[in-house]
Amino acid sequence: MLIFYFMQSFLQPTNGTIASFYQLALRNNGWSYSMIGVVTALGQVTTILGPLVIAALAEHRGREKAAIMACLILSLCFHIPFFLTQDKLIAGVCYVVSCAFLWSLNPLSDGLISKHCIDRQSQYGRIRACGTMGYVLAMFMFSFSGFPADSSNLQMMLNNLGFSLVFLLFVVLAPGDSRYSRDDRKVVTDFGHAFHVFILLIAIARVPMAVVDKMLSSYMVEELGVGKWFTAFVAIGALSEFFCMILGTRIMEKKSVEPIVLILISSTGLLLRLLLYCLTKNIVVFGMAQLLHGVIFGLLHVASVKWISAHVAQEHYSFALSIYHSVALNLPVMLGALAGGFIVDAYGFRTLFLVYMVFPVAEIIYGLA
């Protein structure tokens, strides 16, 4: 089981080197916010469809570990030219295609890990929190070392390559795939009405998360002027995520709080975070708002995995998680990024924060109804 802790510790920094730096790489090549919004939205399309198709095939064949390795290698084949090319068409195509493979890694890894956990919830929560801590340490390392520089796409590429290869090593060393009968490996595409309601509930408040996931690095560098220290602010948010994942897992282990309650608390945190962004550009207040990231995503994620594991058979866990990642998390971000780029170009970031506060309010109302 120890190998999964190391595996997650390098998976999250691998993903983070794209999520945190890709917009800066495009801005370095002269892309406007509106064009970045368009290519982000196209990337989210493959982020949605890729994991669904790949997880379904991997689950049907019982080859999730092999699928993880294949996705990582294929994502690197497109990430390298994405960071190095000056051609906007090639960069856009490489980014869009790579998303299908890169963002399949999380649901596939979650599924593989959960199927090897005796106590899925307590084990998964701690392993995933360890992944967050790996991401935190990587972000602080970037800040204090100055590598990669926010103006160097080559350094961003080398950084991504290094973390990816170490992650690949731990995947190779991880236990093999769990085996199920042919009937168990049939792809299930409908998990019932309760699952549909759950997915909708999560999706409503994910639209403004495009601000955090796709646009915040440029806001910090260009609006707040934090320079290379933007990764330190990202690390602050990730550090709070680590503690909230541990706390959320602990609370649910004692059965004192239902997952839906943690999900609604997450939406409240998102509302407060956007409000703080909207009210001031003060660096201290911004740092305080970053601490809410743990409430927003840390609690949400462990609560969602808890809910899914309680409502879905273990042999279909990877595909259910791919629906959660693709439809509940990534589809709303696609819509938020597409609209967000145009809003920023036309009206600025403050208007974006104000408009997107509508979504967490709507989720809270829907969840309480």
How would you characterize the largest beta sheet? Answer: none
Span between termini:
41 Å
Q: What share of the residues does DSSP label as strand, in percent? A: under 5%
- Give a count of the beta strands, DSSP E runs of length 2 or more: 0
Oligomeric state as shown:
single chain
Tell me the overall shape.
globular
Structural class call reads mainly alpha
Number of DSSP helical runs: 17
Radius of gyration: 19 Å
Mean pLDDT: 85
* Helicity level: over 70%
The residue ranges in which pLDDT falls below 50 over 5 or more consecutive positions are none
What letter string, H or E per element, gives the SSE order?
Answer: HHHHHHHHHHHHHHHHH
Question: Which labels suit this protein?
Answer:
369 residues; mainly alpha; 0% strand
Provide an overview of this structure.
This protein starts with a helix and ends with a helix. It has helices at residues 2-19, 22-28, 33-61, 64-84, 88-102, 105-114, 120-145, 153-173, 193-204, 209-223, 230-253, 259-279, 283-290, 293-311, 317-347, 349-356, 358-368. The chain has 369 residues and is mainly alpha-helical. Helix 6 (105-114) packs antiparallel against helix 15 (317-347) and helix 14 (293-311) packs antiparallel against helix 15. It has 17 helices and no strands. 80% of the residues lie in helices and 0% in strands. The chain is globular and about 45 Å long.
What is this structure's SSE topology?
Layout: H1 2-19, H2 22-28, H3 33-61, H4 64-84, H5 88-102, H6 105-114, H7 120-145, H8 153-173, H9 193-204, H10 209-223, H11 230-253, H12 259-279, H13 283-290, H14 293-311, H15 317-347, H16 349-356, H17 358-368
Helix pairs in contact: 1-7, 1-8, 2-10, 3-4, 3-5, 3-15, 4-5, 4-6, 4-8, 6-15, 7-11, 7-14, 9-15, 10-15, 11-14, 12-13, 12-14, 12-16, 12-17, 14-15, 15-16
